Amino acid sequence: MKPIMSTLQILAFLGGIIGFGANIGATVSNEWKITSRASSVITATWVFQGLWMNCAGNAIGAVHCRRHHTIFKLESYIQVCRGLMIASVCLGFFGAILALVGMKCTKIGGSDKTKARIACLAGLNFIIGGLSSLTACSLYAHRITSEFFDPAFIAQKYELGAALFIGWAGSVLSILGGVVFCFSLAEEGTHARTGYTYSGASFISSRTKAQNRAGDLKSSRENGFSAKQFGKNAYV
User: Fold this and answer.
1) Which among 106, 125, 130, 183 is least surrounded, fewest beta carbons within 10 Å?
2) Cα–Cα distance between 100 and 58 in angstroms, integer?
3) Which residues contact 91 (CB under 8 A, 6 or more apart)?
4) DSSP 3-state assignment of 17?
5) How far apart are CA 155 and CA 145, in angstroms?
6) Looking at 24-28, 71-75, 98-102, 222-226, which range is the least confident one?
7) DSSP collapsed to 3 states, 104-165
8) Is residue 9 over pLDDT 80?
9) Cα of 50 vs its chain's centroid, Å
10) Measured at the alpha carbon of residue 21, what is the angle toward residues 15 and 25, in degrees to the nearest 5?
11) 48 in Cβ contact with 35 (< 8 Å)
């Protein structure tokens, strides 16, 4: 069972690392929302925005970006998405370190019980980080779609950018990796309970064997004493 669990933990670790990297890529990307290139045939330019910059590009490959000047003039949903993505990256970083310590195939972290707890803590970091990224991407996508399909919205309409899909994929991988690491603690607890029951059964069986041997010895002694008395009385 241990080799199987070690293999699952390695796969979970790889999934968590890939999800962590995807969340970093989504956080720094400037393509959270983008204008449709099909609607820009004449000018051959398009606009795309992220959490940190507004950019414009054209058909010849020139791209110009401008940072958001101040945080106080940003819309609230962008500020919320910033906070959630930063939290996701931080949790993924600590989750990767804890997972490296708590994996069964590594020689650091102490006993198996301690390593299982560390692995579970790493799993919680991956799960919470994945949920943070999932919430941020979903909130941003909801804002884009609601503006796109709102007939009363007359400003520039945008479509879903590549960063949102990268963030969704990273959040799913992080959550799956975290679930596997948390499962390792439950598996360790099951093995511990099984070992305790087995030890108790062995102790009881040993005690029963000792009592049976003592009973057999006592019976043999009584039978020998009776035979001696019988022999003595026979000569009388």
Assistant:
1) 106
2) 44
3) 125, 126, 128, 129, 132
4) helix
5) 14
6) 222-226
7) CCCCCCCCHHHHHHHHHHHHHHHHHHHHHHHHHHHHHHHHHHHHHCCCCCCCCCCEECHHHH
8) yes
9) 27
10) 140
11) yes
pLDDT at 133: 96
Q: What is the reported pLDDT for 228? A: 45
Q: What is the mean pLDDT of residues 208-234?
A: 51
111-130 pLDDT, tens per residue?
778 888 888 899 999 999 99
Strand partners, 55: 48, 65
d(CA 119, CA 106): 12
pLDDT at 208: 52
Helix (H, G, I), strand (E, B) or coil at 68: coil
pLDDT tens track for 165-200: 999 999 999 999 999 888 876 665 555 554 444 444
- How wide is the angle at C-alpha 165 spanned by C-alphas 34 and 33, nearest 5°? 15
Backbone CA torsion sign across 139, 141, 143, 146: negative
Where would I find the H helices in the chain? 2-28, 76-102, 112-148, 162-235
- Amino acid identity for residue 7 in this structure: T
d(CA 10, CA 146): 40
Alpha-carbon distance of 39 to 5, in angstroms, equals 52
Written as six digits, the tokens of 196 are 């305790």
pTM of the predicted model as reported, rounded to 2 decimal places: 0.74
Amino acid identity of residue 70, one-letter, is: T
Taken in order 189, 191, 197, 200, the sign of the CA dihedral is negative
Cα 235 to Cα 225: distance, rounded to the nearest angstrom: 16
Q: From the centroid of its chain, how far is CA 6?
A: 15
